UniProtKB/TrEMBL annotation:
Belongs to the LysR transcriptional regulatory family. GO terms for biological process: DNA-templated transcription. It comes from the Bacteria. This is HTH lysR-type domain-containing protein. SUPFAM superfamilies: Periplasmic binding protein-like II, Winged helix' DNA-binding domain. PROSITE patterns: HTH_LYSR (PS50931). GO terms for molecular function: DNA-binding transcription factor activity; sequence-specific DNA binding. Residues 5-62 form the HTH lysR-type domain. Keywords: DNA-binding, Transcription, Transcription regulation. The keyword ATP-binding does not apply. Pfam families: HTH_1, LysR_substrate. InterPro entries: LysR-type_TF_proteobact-type (IPR058163), LysR_HTH_N (IPR000847), LysR_subst-bd (IPR005119), WH-like_DNA-bd_sf (IPR036388), WH_DNA-bd_sf (IPR036390).
């Protein structure tokens, strides 16, 4: 009969999955490198599968093993829940949730939101991963993505939590109307960026500068180099910027909270998405520019 791995075996697998390396897992668990290698190799042998793809980049979860790793993480959460029940009689959402989003959301919107969630869920912690070029959730680089988009790609499943608006800003209204800062990179491929570019091309206006980050765009605009389009939650909070006349009419942009479709029904992730979505819904007035930050 095949020996059944116990929970302690899965701890080693999950530590490697979290850290992306054997050395990182060893540091996290307080054991040596050889112990991690031996325990991971042992569980792979007993299960008859290779859980990780080994490369110079480290240990990455094989895409077809996503469900198995998430099942182990559910076991981890269940074990923690049993321990909490024994101590306190209740089992709130717990563990580490890796959340990825744009730099604007990671620096302006999500930190206070996730702080409030952590204050209510004492056993819950977050890893916040900022990346305007969307991460590949099939590699389990993140559990949840907060994504401003009109439509989620097929590999993601989630719910629209809120809407956000864009506005137009400059250091002062004296900045000439033919001096603009452009959007490039991942944000330059967005619907809003394309509409702005098309309208300015129609007006024969060329960009005096460009950036692939709304935070960088804001910093450029604060120098007075040109006018810029920004999420209102960022532009309205910038004391050095003032609103200027819009050049295009942009519809509100939905903000989704999603996970990889293969893992979307996992209870832990479903519960985490619901909490984050509810918190984002409460922030919609700020995202839509209906409520200004103090001092504005």
């Amino acid at each position: 009969m095949m020996h059944r791995p116990n929970w302690d075996d899965y701890r080693f697998v999950l530590a490697v999955a979290r850290t992306g390396s054997v050395s990182g897992a060893a540091r996290e668990l307080g054991v040596n490198h050889a112990t991690v290698l031996r325990r991971v190799a042992g569980i792979e042998k007993r299960l008859g599968v290779e859980l990780f793809e080994k490369s110079v980049r480290g240990y990455e979860i094989a895409p077809e093993k996503l469900r198995l790793i998430e099942a182990a993480r559910e076991v981890e959460a269940a074990v923690s829940a049993v321990e909490r029940l024994a101590r306190a009689g209740e089992a709130p959402l717990a563990g580490v949730i890796r959340v990825t989003s744009t730099d604007t959301f990671c620096q302006v919107v999500l930190p206070p939101l996730l702080t409030r969630l952590s204050a209510h869920e004492k056993e819950l912690s977050f890893e916040l991963i900022s990346n305007n070029a969307h991460l590949d959730l099939s590699r389990l680089h993140a559990d949840v993505t907060v994504r401003p988009t009109f439509k989620l790609p097929e590999e993601l499943h989630g719910e629209m939590a809120a809407q956000m608006r864009f506005g137009f800003y400059a250091r002062s209204t004296e900045v000439p109307a033919d001096r603009w800062i452009g959007l490039t990179g991942a944000i330059g491929r967005s619907h809003a960026a394309q509409k702005l570019r098309e309208e300015l091309e129609r007006r024969k206006v060329t960009f005096v500068a460009a950036a692939d980050s709304f935070l960088t765009l804001k910093a450029l605009a604060e120098t007075g180099i040109g006018r810029v389009m920004l999420p209102v939650v960022l532009g309205n909070a910038a004391p050095k910027l003032v609103p200027v006349e819009p050049v295009v009419d942009l519809a509100p942009l939905p903000v989704f909270v999603a996970s990889h479709a293969d893992l979307a029904d996992a209870p832990r992730l479903r519960q985490a998405r619901a909490r984050i979505a509810a918190a984002l819904e409460a922030e919609e007035p700020h995202l839509m520019g209906k409520v200004l930050v103090p001092g504005q």
